[in-house]
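User: My instructor asked us to take a sequence, write out its structure as tokens, and then describe one feature of it. I'm not sure where to start. Here is the sequence I was given:
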Amino acid sequence: MSAHESAHSHITLRDHQPRSALAGSVESPDRTCPPYSMTSPSPAPAAQAPQFSENWFEHNIPHWERWLADLRGKRGLRALEIGSFEGRSTLWLCEHILTADDSRIDCLDLFATDPVYGDYHARFRANTAAHAHRIREFPGYSFDGLRKVEGEYDIVYIDGWHSAFGALADGVMSWPLLKIGGVMIFDDYMWVPLKYGKPKKPNRLARLWAKLRGSHWRQEALLKQIRGMPTETPKLGVDGLLATLEGHYELLGSGHQLAVRKIRGFDQGQVGHDT
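Assistant: Let's start with the prediction itself. The structure tokens for your sequence are:
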């Protein structure tokens, strides 16, 4: 397994780690689930240049700028991030969307020492130090963390356990926490574990046929790969969730990531009528 795959497996299989993996989690009273301070924060110390081991986020920025444009700079925004790693997406949100002083973000992650990337939690804190007053950390499994956080959120970003069940579970538990009008983004909707390699390039005729249908051979080859291992990728879980939410969301975009806007909540009387 390559270093990249090993690291990505750690990041995306958070909720599949043995509970002993949490033993090294750092729980400091300053940023681990503190009450938000509504007073003006003290000036942040001069920030050093962020230190990131990998860049799995920047290619998503053009999509995020479009999906989150209506939220940029609004007061009182709240975001929930499931899977933070070294804080690259956290930092981008704080610098470009959650720019009002009273905006906040809750970050769920194992925050445990990684065999490849070491103490990435320390780098997360260093990279986001300038925005520490806006950030709460919830170390541990997302299943546990999602029972501790309190909605409602304007943004929910799901980048946790990259299995069908993991994506489904995180989506099911966080959907009720999302405001009507809020945006939920799933990372790696079209992702295949690196151990399976890249999709094989078909012959010229197959590529031409895909183009004539308005598709692309890479997209079709990737879908074929995913169909061969449906439970090992997020797509099946995301699709299953959205199938149950028909009429409750607007699709904003679908590709490497998938984003939806919540347009309708559930009628509180539904359960009573249906039982």
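For the description part of your assignment, you could build on this observation: Confidence is low (pLDDT under 50) at residues 1-29, 37-44. Try explaining in your own words what that tells you about the chain.
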